[in-house]
Design brief:
This is Glycerol uptake operon antiterminator regulatory protein. InterPro entries: Aldolase_TIM, GlpP. By secondary structure, the chain is an alpha/beta fold. It is built from nine helices and eight strands. It has one domain: TIM Barrel, CATH 3.20.20. Helix 7 links the parallel strand 7 and strand 8.
């Protein structure tokens, strides 16, 4: 991921594929949450040809069998910088195949927070993504127990949600909100 950027573009439909390229100077990386096993390699190569790191959400790619051979296919044929998953079994398969893996969690209450901590201790992904972004005030309490870097994602309706997540310790924020892609947030990093 580009070190001096903080916005991660979550591409959720084909219309957004080209839009990301308009704002590539503001984008840290791209999460692809659309496509199928036929066109995903093309999407990955499109962004990589522009110097953008790409992570694919494996459960969102239609037709991709998510077993050991599927992860070998991802590593050898699709060749993203890494994968994104909500499933611990997929974290294990990605790690077995030496693929950088981000485990995505949804946080709505205290029990879910404890589940994130307990699951991450076992699965040991390379990075955690916690959703929604407005729960970023919990970054320190989670990170102090799992020692895994955290990004936030989802429900980035206001610039203040993104900047608050960064102030709370997030390495970046993923969003499908194209308005956030348009904005330059590296200035924020230099001020804090």
């Amino acid at each position: 991921m580009k070190d001096n950027r903080v916005v991660i573009a979550s591409v959720t439909n084909e219309k957004q594929l080209e839009t990301v390229l308009k704002y590539q100077d503001n984008i840290k990386a791209v999460f692809i949450l659309t496509g199928n096993f036929i066109n995903i390699k093309e999407y990955v190569k499109l962004y990589q040809s522009h110097g953008i790191d790409v992570y694919i959400h494996v459960e969102m790619i239609k037709g991709l069998k998510l077993d050991d051979f599927g992860f070998k296919y991802i590593k050898q044929m699709i060749q993203p910088q890494g994968v994104l998953t909500t499933k611990t079994s997929h974290v294990k398969l990605a790690k077995k195949n030496a693929i950088f893996v981000i485990q995505r969690f949804f946080l709505a209450d205290h029990d879910m927070k404890e589940n994130i901590i307990n699951t991450a201790r076992v699965s040991q992904p390379d990075l955690l993504e916690i959703m929604p972004t407005i729960t970023s005030f919990l970054i320190n309490s989670i990170q102090s127990q799992v020692k895994i870097p955290i990004i936030m994602g989802g429900l980035v309706d206001k610039e203040s949600y993104l900047t608050q997540a960064l102030e709370d310790g997030a390495l970046g924020v993923s969003t499908a909100n194209e308005e956030m892609w348009r904005r330059e947030f590296t200035k924020f990093l230099h001020e804090h």
